[in-house]
Write a structure and sequence with these properties.
The protein is of the alpha/beta class. The chain has 3 domains: 1-38, no CATH class; 41-249, P-loop containing nucleotide triphosphate hydrolases (Rossmann fold); 260-304, no CATH class. It has 14 helices and 7 strands. The chain has helices spanning 2-9, 13-24, 30-37, 57-70, 90-97, 123-134, 149-157, 172-177, 180-183, 197-211, 230-246, 249-275, 280-288, 294-304, and strands at residues 45-51, 75-80, 107-112, 139-145, 160-165, 186-189, 218-221. Strands 3-2-4-1-5-6-7 form a 7-stranded parallel sheet, with helices on both faces. Helix 1 (2-9) crosses helix 2 and helix 2 runs antiparallel to helix 6 (123-134). The chain is globular. The protein starts with a helix and ends in an 8-residue tail after the last helix. It binds guanosine-5'-triphosphate (GTP) and magnesium ion (MG). Guanosine-5'-triphosphate (GTP) binds next to helix 4 and helix 5.
């Protein structure tokens, strides 16, 4: 364990890979490992990239990695639950799309097909992020498919969140519905080589004008496959990061991140303990049979766990 931690903190590739396996598979030693490295985290630039399936997030990530490497920065990538029907066998798709970095020791890419059973960004994704952070990666990119809760979670974790949009997926109402207006720090209108990109650009701008009078996210046009617009996007990302630090918003973000992590562990730990209780199924059945309310069921579970709830 000591060697593992030392190697990891020194930025070595194999200890990092090994540590990730420990965390992902919930192996013994995970707790101790995280405890050792946790104080050494918090230095990486956490960059969220989210958007609908097949929007070109991985292709874009691949190009962003190249720019960051040119700037001498080391990069970690976590692709959470890549599940797009577009790339069919998405993890393989990610490998192919980012394989030019496979032999680069300054880049570490991990695809994870895991998701917390409660939905949202899985704990292990966050723990893997900590490992990469502690191993000294300058930038960690977290790619998530933007459907539902993940987007909200990534926003609580990342310093900057890029929302990737593509023409042809629907009108402005859908943009608004998806909730992306609230979470985007930077927009990338990708596949700008396609028809409808200008229209999408204007729609996003109009929507932002409607809901925000200051701190409007910048919108960039990109053609990820052709490496077009990536320089500007990367500049825009770091400009946002600078602003977050200048305005002091970073403190709020750090606190939110901690709370979000704590919450994930809290919920998981309660669920884990509850569902392994002997009479858990029995309680579920009684709720189904309308013998008790879900609220009473929770009281019984908590009582079974030796916890008491004060009436509020
Ligand atoms: N025309 C065009 N195609 C693009 C562009 N960027 C990506 N693509 C293509 O879009 C498809 C999906 O790209 P990915 O990078 O896998 O998209 P993704 O958002 O990561 O997909 P998932 O992670 O599976 O949701 C691939 O066939 C890419 O080659 C672009 O700018 N223009
Ligand atoms: Mg992808």
């Amino acid at each position: 364990m000591k060697d593992l931690v030392t190697g990891l903190l020194a930025g070595k590739v194999r200890p990092l890979a090994k540590a990730i396996t420990v965390v992902e598979n919930d192996r013994s030693g995970k707790r101790e490992l995280l405890k050792e490295i946790y104080p050494r985290t918090g230095n990486a630039y956490l960059l969220g990239i989210t958007g609908p399936p097949g929007a070109g997030k991985s292709t874009l990530t691949d190009k962003v990695i190249s720019k960051l490497r040119q700037q001498g920065k080391t990069v970690g990538v976590i692709a959470v639950d890549p599940s797009s029907p577009f790339s069919g066998g998405a993890i393989l798709g990610d490998r192919i799309r980012m394989q030019q970095h496979a032999l680069d020791d300054g880049v570490f890419i991990r695809s994870m097909a895991t998701r917390s059973h409660l939905g949202g960004l899985s704990k292990s994704a966050v723990d893997v992020m900590h490992l990469m952070d502690a191993s000294g990666k300058d930038v960690i990119i977290i790619e998530t498919v933007g459907v539902g809760q993940d987007e909200v979670d990534i926003v609580r974790i990342a310093k900057t969140t890029v929302v990737v949009m593509v023409p042809g997926l629907g009108d402005s109402v859908q943009i608004a519905k998806a909730g992306v207006m609230e979470i985007a720090d930077v927009f990338a209108v990708n596949k700008a080589d396609r028809e409808g990109a200008d229209k999408l650009f204007s729609e996003i701008r109009a929507m932002l004008d409607m809901i925000k009078d200051k701190d409007k996210p910048e919108i960039f046009r990109t053609v990820a496959v052709d490496d077009v617009g990536i320089d500007e996007l990367v500049q825009g990302i770091f400009a946002h990061g600078d602003k977050v630090v200048e305005t002091g918003l970073i403190q709020k973000k750090i606190a939110e991140k901690a709370e979000s992590e704590l919450r994930a562990y809290l919920l998981d730990s309660i669920m884990e303990r509850s569902t392994t209780m002997t009479d858990y199924d029995e309680i579920v059945k009684r709720v189904a049979d309308k013998q008790i309310t879900p609220m009473d069921g929770v009281d019984e579970i908590f009582a079974g766990l030796g916890m008491t709830i004060k009436e509020s």
